[in-house]
Amino acid sequence: MALKSPYSKEMNLNTHHKQSTQPRRPVVAQPAARAWEDEQAALQQDNVQQDKIWRESVEAEQRQRRIWYQNWSFLKDYDQMGKKKEQKPLPNYVPVFSSKVPNSTNQIIGSRMNTELGKALVNMDHFFSSGARKRKLDGELQLS
After folding, report:
1. DSSP readout, 74-100?
2. CA distance linking residue 33 with residue 39, whole number of Å
3. Which of 39, 59, 35 is nearest to 49 (CA)?
4. What does the alpha-carbon distance between residue 112 and residue 102 come to, in Å, rounded to a whole number?
């Protein structure tokens, strides 16, 4: 059986009431939703109120964290099957610089440029940034 459009003028003979020939009205935003949007717009302009809301949300998050720790923190010591997890010991020393990736003081590629990987990185950097460099104008385009 084919579906009938709500805009068709035919009547359904199987029911006791007539279908409306009027098109459906578009859904209009509810007054409550519009009021909420107006309230949010007003809050965006009021920095003091935003700060108060932020502080309240941070305080509520900290309160919930304390409640979770009291009620559910024992679960972090067990795996999914309910067996006790082994605690991994923390290392005594963690180096600041990586032994695998070259680091420098400004967090760009450092002094290990003599390796094959370093040379490839320099070549790629030169290739990718060459389009953004300023170029010397040709003789015919320079001012004389």
Report:
1. GGGGB-TTSPBPPPPPPPS---SS-SS
2. 10
3. 39
4. 6
Residues pairing with 78 in the sheet: 84
Q: Which residues contact 111 (CB under 8 A, 6 or more apart)?
A: 102, 104
pLDDT digits (tens, 9 = 90+) for 70-128: 999 888 889 888 899 998 898 998 877 777 766 655 555 555 567 788 788 778 877 77
Q: How far apart are the C-alpha atoms of 50 and 58, rounded to whole Å? A: 12
Q: Are 72 and 64 in contact (CB under 8 A)?
A: no
Reading the block at residue 123, the tokens are 């070549």
For residues 39 and 109, what is the distance between their CA atoms, to the nearest angstrom?
50
Q: Is 109 exposed, middle or buried (0-12, 13-18, 19+ CB in 10 A)?
A: middle
Using N-to-C axis directions, what is the helix angle for 47-72 and 31-45, rounded to 10°? Answer: 100
pTM to 2 decimals? 0.34
